[in-house]
Design goal:
disordered C terminus; 7 helices; three-stranded antiparallel beta sheet; single chain; alpha+beta; binds zinc ion; 7 strands; 2 domains; 37% helix
Length: 188
C-alpha cells in the first residue's frame, strides 16, 4: 500500500459512522460519494449539469443560480440520500399510495355496460391523500428536520462546506417548497 492510498483510507472512513447531527442527536450514517448516486441513475435531470460539473471539474454547486426545479430536485436528492444512507435510526421514504401512486385520484368506470367511460375519483385506497397510512413507530424522511437532513446529506457526500453555503444561499426559499405533510401539521 502506498502512502497515498493509506491517507485516502484514513480520510474516508469505512462502514457506517456515528455522527452528531444538529440538535445534539446522533445518527449512524454510511458515507457515499456523489458519483455513486450518479452511476446508479439517481440524480434527477435538472441537477445533472451541476452534478457533472461537480464530479468532473470538482465545482461546487452554486445554489444561487439554481431554478425552482433544480432546488426541488436537490431537496429530493437530499431525502433520497438520508433514506439510503442513514442506518440508525432507519429513515423511511414518504409512503406513496400504491393504487394512485401519490396522485390522489384513481380511475373509475361509470355509465351503462356498453358505454362505459372512465372518470377520475378520489383514490379509495388513500382517500385522496396520495399516501398510505403511516406507521407511528417509523421515522419518515419528511419528518426529519431540514437542518438534520442537510447535515447528513453533506456528510454522506463529503461536502460539509457546500452544505453550509446551501443553507445560507437559500435562506428563506427552502421554506416555500411545498411539502405533503410536515411534523407540525401531523401534530395538529
Ligand atoms: Zn391513493
Amino acid at each position: 500500500m502506498s502512502p497515498n492510498e493509506a491517507s485516502i483510507e484514513s480520510e474516508w472512513e469505512k462502514g457506517p459512522q456515528t455522527i452528531e447531527v444538529p440538535g445534539g442527536k446522533h445518527a449512524r450514517v454510511r458515507r457515499r460519494p456523489l458519483d455513486t448516486f450518479y452511476k446508479a441513475g439517481k440524480i434527477p435531470n435538472a441537477l445533472m449539469p451541476a452534478v457533472r460539473a461537480a464530479i468532473i471539474k470538482g465545482d461546487d454547486f452554486n445554489v444561487e443560480d439554481f431554478n425552482d426545479q433544480q432546488i426541488f430536485d436537490l431537496l429530493s436528492v437530499m431525502d433520497m440520500i438520508v433514506v439510503e444512507c442513514t442506518e440508525t435510526p432507519r429513515v423511511y421514504p414518504i409512503p406513496v399510495c400504491r393504487t394512485c401512486h401519490g396522485v390522489g385520484t384513481a380511475d373509475q368506470e361509470v355509465g351503462p355496460a356498453k358505454k362505459k367511460t372512465i372518470i377520475k375519483v378520489d383514490c379509495p385506497a388513500c382517500e385522496a391523500r396520495g399516501e398510505e397510512p403511516r406507521d407511528p413507530d417509523r421515522v419518515y424522511v419528511d419528518e426529519v428536520p431540514f437542518d438534520t437532513k442537510n447535515f447528513i446529506y453533506s456528510y454522506v457526500i463529503g461536502v460539509t462546506e457546500d452544505l453550509k453555503s446551501f443553507l445560507e444561499q437559500t435562506n428563506g426559499s427552502v421554506e416555500s417548497v411545498p411539502e405533503r405533510e410536515t411534523v407540525g401539521s401531523k401534530a395538529k
